[in-house]
Design goal:
alpha+beta, Endonuclease III, domain 1, 4-stranded mixed sheet, 4 strands, 8% strand, binds zinc ion, Integrase zinc-binding domain-containing protein, Retrovirus_Pol_polyprotein, Integrase_H2C2
Length: 136
């Protein structure tokens, strides 16, 4: 974990030193690392956030996790402001996820005829006719 050297971390540490009630959920350990309820505070460092998100998201072997799943996993260990929103934005920018989503959302176009079955009764389709007038 890189050093926490950002403005936000500095401010929170100052508030802690002044024993601000609101900042009680933060703790500083003996190494000077800032924690939020047992989760490490990730400084506003674009590279670092990206690294954490990449690690949680990019897998060659499995489906990419969605933002809810990623948030559930990452929140066990990490905390930063607007974390949930940033994860959602990260996932929305992932090329692979967009392609997967697009293939699930194929636009309904012209009705496709069923392929000619290669065996009897392989495909059965029915049309329901409604709205006929009653026989007299
Ligand atoms: Zn993805």
């Amino acid at each position: 974990m890189a050093q926490q050297h950002d403005e936000g971390v500095k401010i929170i540490k100052q508030m802690l030193a002044q024993e601000e009630e609101k900042y009680k959920c933060f703790q500083v350990d003996h190494k000077g690392i800032l924690w939020f309820n047992g989760r490490i505070v990730v400084p506003k460092d674009h590279q670092l956030c990206k690294q954490i998100l990449d690690e949680a998201h990019l897998s060659k072997f499995f489906m990419h996790p969605g933002s809810t799943k990623m948030y559930q996993d990452l929140r066990q260990n990490f905390w930063w402001t607007r974390m949930k929103r940033e994860i959602a934005r990260y996932v929305s920018k992932c090329d692979i996820c967009q392609r997967v989503k697009a293939s699930h959302l194929k636009v309904a176009g012209v009705l496709q005829p069923l392929p000619i079955p290669s065996w009897k009764w392989e495909d059965i389709s029915m049309d329901f006719i409604v709205g006929l007038s009653n026989t007299s």
